[in-house]
Amino acid sequence: MSDNRAVVVDPEAPGRLVISPVAAPVPDRGEAVVRVRAISLNRGEVRRAGMAAAGWRPGWDLAGEVERAAADGSGPRVGARVVGLLPEAAWAERVAVPTHALAELPEKVTLSQAATLPVAGLTALYALAKRGLLLGRRVLVTGATGGVGDFAVQLARLVGAHVTVSVRRADQGPTLRQLGAHEVVVGEDIPPSPKYDLIIESVGGRTLGTALAALERGGVCVTLGVSAAAEVTFDARQFFVAGRTTLYGFYIFTELASAPASVGLRRLADLVAAGQLAPHISLERPWTEIARVAQDLIARRFPGKAVLTLD
Fold first, then answer.
1. Core-most of 7, 43, 77, 292, by most CB within 10 Å?
2. H or E, element range at 151
3. What number does CATH give the domain 5-116+279-309?
């Protein structure tokens, strides 16, 4: 009998996700073994789970306690409360995590709050950095009701940007204004005016195509998702006439090759502890409900983040 269980793809099961016994983690010298207490879901790993072969283990975000410290002496000590991420297989009772992808948590941050930070929080943090100093700059965030968008709005406002959000429905506007958005654009199309210094774009399709025409000279559009459509048509002339504009393809695990997750995770956790960043947790359920919550995420039945807790 295994003393470790994990979320595993089973194509025959409702929702394709089940909890099954798996091997205990065997850490490398630079990895700590973490007893996972909370996980959060992202569209990327859930989508992949919908297509993956039997036995594949999804999961990026995790929070818990260090059960065994790294043999090389790096990273948090035994018993430390931590947040971390893995490129896959994070949704398990125990996992081995490289210490460069782990950050110790301040006392004021709960494990459920922490579990929302890795992929969504780091994506927002690093994507906003692509335009440099944002004080007084105009920033547009599309798909702003999702996990990344939610953090991006708060972080952009925190650094002094003028923040506009794009949403599908007008009733989503008031919540985003409370988060810090100055203006709300409703619908798939982004108007060509005003112009933006930075656009954080996660919708694709018509939204990305029209957003490119709304870039200020020297502006950057960071594309990091395609929740509406992967194929995009845009007016190339409007794009290049603006001058020195950039379309930047962003994938968090590529970015982390040059920016250790531990540093960004600690920055985000400190902001949460200081009351300057508030994770938006719409659902908190036991991890035994993984299949249903994953289906609800893909169907957009809730905004913000879903967190699952392990007993």
1. 7
2. helix 147-158
3. 3.90.180.10
Rounded distance, CA 121 to CA 154, Å? 10
Share of the chain above pLDDT 70, in %: 99
- Rounded to two decimals, the pTM is 0.96
Strand partners, 19: 7
**Positive or negative CA dihedral for 255, 42, 200, 157?**
negative
Residue 33 has pLDDT above 80, yes or no: yes
pLDDT at 1 over 50: no
Distance CA 22, CA 6 (A): 6
> How many CA atoms does the CB half-sphere of 87 hold within 13 Å?
8
- Going from N- to C-terminal start, the domains of the chain cover 5-116+279-309, 121-253
| CATH of the domain spanning 121-253, picked from 2.120.10.90, 3.40.50.620, 3.40.50.720, 1.20.1050.10 | 3.40.50.720
More confident: 302 or 141: 141
How does the average pLDDT of the chain come out, rounded?
95
Please, how many CA atoms are within 13 Å of residue 308, restricted to the half-sphere of its CB?
27
Phi/psi of residue 90, nearest 5 degrees: -75, -20
Other C-beta atoms lying within 10 Å of the C-beta of residue 296:
18
Contacts of 148 (CB under 8 A, 6+ apart): 119, 120, 123, 124, 127, 200, 202, 224, 225
